[in-house]
Structures are given as C-alpha cells and as structure tokens.
Design goal:
By secondary structure, the chain is of the alpha/beta class. It has one domain: Rossmann fold, CATH 3.40.50. The chain is 49% helix and 13% strand. The chain binds NADP nicotinamide-adenine-dinucleotide phosphate (NAP).
Length: 282
C-alpha cells in the first residue's frame, strides 16, 4: 500500500533499527504506533520524531508493552485496533550467541518467545481487525540467520527460521484475503544488538554489516511493493539460496565460523593470567 495510507504498528521501535524505521515511515507519510517496553524512551522518541521531522502529532503515537506478557499482547492488540492499524511490523527481537551447550534454558525460552511466539500471538490477536481493513500487511523482520544456520547461532537462528516459516505459511494461508504477509531478512546491522563477542566473530569471519537506514529503506520499499520476501546483502542472498537447495554444500564454508566460536569459547573459559612476582602475567 502507499505509505500515506499506512497506519503502522511498529514493535522494537525504540531499538537501533526500529528508530530509523519509524523516521523513514513517517517521512514517507505513514502514521506510526511506536512499541517498546520503556515508557520514557518511547515518549522522548515520539517527541523527538515529531519535532525533528515536523510531522503532525496525530500521525505518531506510542504504546509501552512487554511482548512477553500475554496481558500486554492483548492490550496492545486492542490499542492497535482502536487506533486503526492496517500494517504490523514485527521488528522487536533479542539476540543470542554462543555454543548451545552453554545456553541457559530460560534464555533459550526468552529468545524463542520474543522472536517467534510473540509475533505469532500478536498477529493472531490482530487478525479479526486486519480482516476488516480494505488492505492490511504483516511484515516480519527476520534475519539472514533465519535462512542459514551458523555455528553459535543455534538458538537465535531457530527463532528466525521459525519466523520465516510462520510468515511463509501464513502468507499462503491468507492468499485469498486482504491481508498480505511479508518477510524481510536483514544481514548483520550496525546496532547495539550485536555484543562485542558477535562483533569480533563478524570481524574474524569477514561478515559485512549494513547501517539501520538500509534495513529501514528496504522495509519502506516492501510496504509499498507488497513483495512477499526480501533478503539483504550479497553474498548473503546467494548463500541463502544455495543453502535452501543444498545445505550440505555449504557445511564446510562455515568451518572458520566454528573455529572462531571455539576460540572465543576457550578464551572465555580461560581464567585471567595471574601476575608473577615480577608483575608479568604467566
Ligand atoms: N542488528 C542486527 O545485526 C540484526 C540483523 C538482522 C536482523 N535483526 C533483527 O532486527 C530487529 C531489530 O534489531 P535491532 O538491531 O534494532 O535491535 P535492538 O537495537 O536491540 O532493539 C531491539 C528492540 O526490541 C525491543 N524488545 C526486545 N524485547 C522486547 C519485549 N520483551 N517486549 C517489547 N519489546 C522488546 C526493544 O525494546 P526496549 O526498548 O523495550 O528494549 C527494542 O526496541 C530484531 O528483530 C533483530 O533480530 C538485527
């Protein structure tokens, strides 16, 4: 749909990519409901966007919600329906990096809940409202790691593979309705989402990073073109295609990633060297 006709519920709006998405959508004429957990942060962001972009205050609103809370999801769906949202962008997400053996059970559950279950439940809660719209769109923000499984990203990758599967199945399920379901797969992007360990892994494996504006521009283009899916970055796009047809062909291509991961693990598990009498570490 045209940006000017879009009333976008944007989760993860307070994050590195979300803030730029909000600005890009507003500049293109859309109305935006910013969603995050922190009221103060959303309120400041909303004021800043209104002032900086000189948009009428009625085109921007915010709703503080913890997407891990069922009551929160119900309240958000109700607020979005009352506001008249016709586009949902599932952009909120949490990272996870490291060997599966070291992952905490609660952490695994939190990542899958935030990145996969919450978008599914929020979409489900909003569907009756979306079906009443002339045209509606649900855009899931996944990741390259939702198409290619990399060492160190088994938990995060599972959440994003799941999100991609959800978007694809629902797109086909709703093909004869007014609700379009889309999937955007950014590659690594320069925000605080990536821990220093991930930054080092990216550096050691030659993984390129985009700026948030690249992802935000792609989102706007997807909103307007209504394309089913889009993946960002080369060679990531090509690798995702090859991986989709013949994943074992790529297994050895990620040996370096595994070695970097085990190197990082060894370093993390090695106690810091104790100073000797001379003051030099042993
Ligand atoms: N950065 C990358 O390298 C990269 C690459 C590919 C895909 N992505 C995907 O892009 C999306 C945005 O990433 P980003 O880099 O902008 O991350 P970010 O800067 O860490 O922002 C994450 C956003 O998610 C929100 N969020 C997290 N848990 C939440 C919860 N329980 N309830 C409500 N909101 C919650 C945060 O809100 P609060 O203000 O409440 O914390 C924040 O707005 C994510 O889905 C991520 O998986 C990122």
């Amino acid at each position: 749909m045209k940006a000017a006709d879009a009333r976008v519920l944007l989760t993860g709006a307070s994050g590195g990519i979300g803030q730029v998405m909000a600005a890009t959508l507003l500049q293109a004429g859309a109305s935006v409901m910013l969603v995050g957990r922190n009221e103060a942060r959303l309120s400041i962001l909303s004021e800043d966007l209104t002032r900086r972009l000189n948009v009428p205050a009625d085109r921007i609103t915010w709703q503080a919600t913890d997407l891990l809370s069922n009551d929160g999801l119900t309240g958000l769906a109700h607020a979005a329906a009352t506001w008249g949202a016709n586009v949902v962008v599932h952009n909120a997400g949490v990272p996870s990096f490291g060997p599966l053996a070291a992952a905490d059970t609660g952490e695994i559950a939190r990542v899958l809940h935030t990145n996969l279950l919450a978008p599914m439940l929020l979409t489900q809660a909003l569907l009756p409202h979306l079906h009443r719209q002339k045209r509606a769109q649900v855009i899931c923000v996944g990741s390259t790691l939702g198409s290619i499984g990399l060492p160190g990203f088994s938990v995060y990758g599972a959440s994003k593979f799941g999100l991609r599967g959800f978007a694809e199945a629902l797109r086909r399920e709703l093909a004869d309705t007014a609700v379009r379901v889309q999937y955007l797969g950014p590659r690594s992007t320069h925000t605080t989402f990536n821990s220093p360990q991930v930054e080092s892994y990216n550096l050691a494996t030659g993984t390129a990073q985009d700026m948030p504006a690249t992802v935000a521009t792609a989102l706007l283009e997807m909103l307007e073109s209504e394309s089913a899916q889009r993946f960002l970055g080369f060679p990531e796009k090509l690798a995702a295609r090859i991986n989709g047809c013949a994943p074992s062909l790529l297994d050895s291509a990620f040996n370096k990633h595994r070695q970097v991961l085990s190197g990082a693990l060894t370093q993390a598990l090695t106690p810091p060297a104790r100073p000797t009498a001379s003051g030099n570490p042993t």
